[in-house]
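Quarterly update from the structural biology core.
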Amino acid sequence: MKNQVRAYFVEAKWFHEWQIPTMEEYMRIALLSSGYSLLITSCFIGMRLVVRKEALDWAMNDPKIVRASNILGLMNDVTSYKLKRRHIALAIEFYMKQYDVLEEQVHNEFHDQIVKAWMDINQEILKPTAVPMSLLTLILNLSRVLDVVYREGDSYTSVGEGMKDNIRSLLIDPIV
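Predicted structure, tokenized:
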């Protein structure tokens, strides 16, 4: 949690001082401020019957599957940029400025990063590890949530018919 609050402070400093970080600086901080790593760790703690200290230590050392799952947060930036939400600077803007490329090129690059992140997640799920599979499955399922929420737009901020249909099919009319 301390790292997340420190990341908020850095983002606030950038905003108030009109600083434009490099894409690498932005991603390092944005991955912390997203709260995703904290969510994963919190979920692990809630699974106290399964989780041992070694698993928490593993999660705190930024394993490949957590990094890859965090990258899926780029979908939120892409969606927010498409919807012209301009209250905060987004990864797309930093990337375009740093590399002097057009928006379409950034979308292609981010799409490639998201595809690679899914490949990394799948690889980590399929290879044997000292961490219980239930913990890896939790990360996989949280990644799936990000994908469902942001793939076709920002269903987190503006719940549309697509997300309502997803919720209906999952909770109201499930296949049993």
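The two ends are 39 Å apart (CA to CA).
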